[in-house]
Amino acid sequence: MKNNISLRSLYKKDAPLLLECLSNTTIASYFHLDSNHINLDSMYNFIQDSQVTPLYSRFAITDIETDEYLGIVSLENINLSNKSAEYVISLRKEAQAFGYGYVATMKILEYSFNTLDLQRVYFNVLSKNETAINFFERCGFVYEGEFSEHIFIQNEFQSLKWFRLMKHEYDKIMMSGTSSVYDVKLIEFAHLGDDRGQLVVVEGRHNIPFDIKRIFYIYGSDSKVVRGQHANRHSAFCMINVRGTSKIRAIDCNGNEKVFNLDRPNIGLYLPKMIWKDMYDFSSDSVLLVLSSEYYDGSEYIRSYDDFLLL
Ligand code: TYD
Question: Can you give the pTM of this predicted structure?
Fold first, then answer.
């Protein structure tokens, strides 16, 4: 994750690299641009237009040291009566996968909710763009619904997924240091087996994202039992069904939920702090091994689901 970026106004010198970002038909449409007439001149007009209208707040994402242009992040259709705006981001290919998009998004959300005093930031994305959707979910945006086959683009009708973030949801993300359910991940460990049998290795900070301070395991629970039913303020976990199977329901404090099947001994479920978890549907032979980033401390457990959702 790179924090060394800043948001600044668009300058004329950004035009060539801006052209690269906005020449994609879909992105162009978010900026109300005619994709058939995108060239350097239209970029100069776009930059000039961006300085004068209260309808948009468009920022270049730049390297804080070199001022290199990395992409654009914007609020379009700002409506101060409704306190809403549409969020758009486009990064140069070379600037993708470094965490710049996340930092730029957090900066523009801060500006949206704390400077412009908006209540709602929203956007849509092509339903098939799973990489972008994963990114938006990681940022904390909440899925609202789908417009099926809504636009004709790239020679076919395509569906759009709509996302939003309300001010109270943003405040919740900022204040509680909570995690998103989209940060919960299945990790596949390598089998190091041979004809003598299998072997799986888990090493703190190597193939799971924390140092292991504590190990416990749960067995003898049957298919009717639900265990867990709590969130932890500080502990992260990795859960592995070293024998048998179980399911884990993970919920974040925005109420987003995901269910994971633990059905192989070389699969671990990484759960960051502040995720509600229910473990259930245990097979009779289930042995659920849990690796934790912290020593046991009963006071860091949140055992009331209602309290958890209020965080
Ligand atoms: P509990 O958290 O209810 O288990 P689960 O989440 O699997 O349903 O823990 C059961 C008991 O064990 C409870 O009295 C606390 C105690 N305990 C420890 O002393 N140390 C630990 O590391 C854990 C996980 C639990």
Answer: 0.58
